[in-house]
């Protein structure tokens, strides 16, 4: 279906056709210009305007490409960008979709400066942090003798602390000769410091200007000379927004020359006000101390009494203590007398004489009972002993021996029961009813009759 030539287009369709035409006819291009209105919303995209003397171009650098841009993008930087010419259809904005960014012109200088700054920082050139004397006794100022910086510094020092001694070291602060001149001056001042120890601080300063005007203070060798200076260095170059390598290498940085002078010395007016406040505080403290001591003196005077009164009070106290002591002694004596009577009564009840009498009576009764019981006990024991003797006599072997029998024993005291238990020539002992016989076995003749235990089967000899 064809569209009539006089039929109107919708805004959306027109913008779409324009976008397609731009992307097809112009396509991807490199564009050089100055950054302006750089914006970084939370989305991560970067929006800016690229402009020159007669025109400007809206640009969009999306987040996926922005992370590959190493150099910081700041207003005023001159850059070269590569992108696709397009049109933002919802608003009809003509724009460049940026794919790459690199520095151009001054932007290249800034990129080189950033690389140098990173390298010096890694080497520790920016690690100085010595404190400057406050206030310095002799301040050495490296700056142009005809610039506004020295006038501002001297005016502030004169107003705040005119006691400081200032020596101007005239050096160029712009152009090719500036950095070498300042390096040579720093070397000379450090060598002379041993001759004049009162020189205790260096101030390097100049007023504001363009990037080219301040470029001498971005010299690598000047930054290293400041870093190696034995004297502490303060740097105050340009305005507050300007930061040079000299500022970073110095021990202390000030945003402007006037601010440097204010940091270097105290304000005598503030010290005067402080002295006035301290004097007032001292006077008030003195009055307060006098009032306090006066009250303390009155209190002590009220407490102070005549020695006679003190002695009389001590006598009364002594009389009271003496009375208490007498009463306590009397009470103790009464208590001890009672205790003594009680102990005497207990001792009388447990007297040794009484105990001895009682023990003697018990001994007499026990002795009487013993004498009475002893004959009866002896008679019983004699009677029992006679019975046992008779029983023993009845079963005693000696009684058998008394009837003519004998007991043969060998040399070990063992009883010989059989003839076979002896050997010819063996010594034996015969135990009789009365006495003993020593025998010797002459020979063994035969067996002993079992029914004749009294016979002897062997011959013996005495």
Principal-axes geometry comes out as elongated
Order of helices and strands: HEEEHEEHEHEHEHEHEHHHHHEEEE
Amino- and carboxy-terminal Cα gap: 178 Å
Q: Give the count of helical stretches.
A: 12
**Which topology of the largest domain does CATH recognise?**
Rossmann fold
Strand content: 15-25%
Mean pLDDT: 85
Work out the radius of gyration: 69 Å
CATH top level label of the largest domain:
Alpha Beta
Strands across the major sheet, in which order?
Answer: 1-2-3-5-4
Quaternary structure annotation: single chain
| Number of separate strands | 14
In total, the number of domains comes to 4
Supply the CATH architecture of the largest domain.
Answer: 3-Layer(aba) Sandwich
Q: How much helix is in the residues?
A: 40-55%
**Biggest sheet statistics:** 5 strands, mixed, barrel
Structural class: alpha/beta
CATH homologous superfamily label of the largest domain: Succinyl-CoA synthetase domains
Runs in which pLDDT lies below 50 for 5 or more consecutive residues are 448-459
């Amino acid at each position: 279906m064809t569209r009539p030539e006089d039929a109107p287009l919708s805004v959306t369709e027109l913008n779409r056709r324009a976008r397609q035409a731009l992307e097809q006819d112009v396509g991807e291009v490199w564009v050089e210009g100055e950054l302006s209105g750089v914006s970084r919303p939370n989305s991560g995209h970067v929006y800016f305007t690229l402009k020159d003397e007669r025109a400007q171009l809206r640009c969009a650098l999306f987040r996926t490409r922005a992370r590959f841009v190493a150099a910081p993008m700041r207003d005023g930087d001159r850059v070269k960008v590569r992108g696709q010419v397009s049109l933002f259809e919802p608003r009809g904005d003509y724009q460049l979709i940026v794919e790459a960014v690199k520095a151009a012109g001054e932007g290249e200088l800034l990129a080189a400066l950033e690389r140098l700054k990173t390298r010096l920082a890694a080497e520790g050139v920016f690690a100085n942090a010595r404190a400057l004397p406050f206030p310095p006794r002799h301040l050495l100022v490296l700056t142009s003798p005809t610039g506004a910086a020295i006038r501002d510094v001297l005016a502030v020092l004169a107003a705040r602390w005119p006691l400081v001694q200032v020596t101007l070291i005239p050096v160029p602060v712009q152009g090719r000769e500036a950095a070498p001149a300042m390096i040579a001056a720093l070397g000379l001042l450090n060598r002379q410091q041993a001759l004049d120890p009162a020189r205790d601080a260096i101030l390097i300063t100049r007023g504001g200007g363009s990037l080219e005007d301040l470029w001498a203070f971005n010299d690598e060798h000047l930054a290293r000379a400041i870093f190696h200076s034995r004297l502490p260095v303060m740097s105050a170059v340009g305005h507050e927004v300007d930061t040079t390598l000299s500022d970073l290498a110095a021990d202390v940085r000030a945003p402007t020359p006037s601010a440097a002078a204010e940091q270097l010395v105290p304000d005598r007016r503030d010290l005067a006000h402080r002295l006035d406040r301290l004097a007032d505080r001292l006077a008030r403290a003195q009055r307060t101390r006098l009032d306090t001591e006066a009250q303390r003196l009155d209190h002590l005077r009220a407490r102070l009494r005549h020695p006679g009164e003190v002695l009389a009070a001590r006598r009364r106290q002594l009389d009271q203590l003496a009375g208490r002591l007498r009463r306590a002694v009397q009470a103790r004596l009464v208590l001890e007398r009672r205790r003594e009577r009680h102990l005497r009564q207990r001792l009388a009840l447990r007297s040794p004489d009484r105990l001895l009498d009682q023990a003697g009576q018990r001994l007499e009764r026990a002795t009487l009972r013993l004498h009475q019981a002893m004959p009866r006990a002896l008679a019983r024991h004699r009677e029992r002993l006679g019975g046992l003797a008779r029983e023993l006599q009845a079963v005693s072997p000696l009684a058998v021996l008394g009837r003519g029998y004998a007991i043969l024993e060998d040399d070990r005291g063992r009883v010989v029961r059989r003839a076979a238990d002896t050997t010819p020539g063996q010594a034996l002992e015969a135990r009789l009813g009365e006495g003993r016989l020593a025998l010797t076995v002459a020979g063994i003749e035969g067996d002993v009759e079992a029914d004749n235990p009294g016979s002897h089967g062997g011959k013996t000899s005495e």
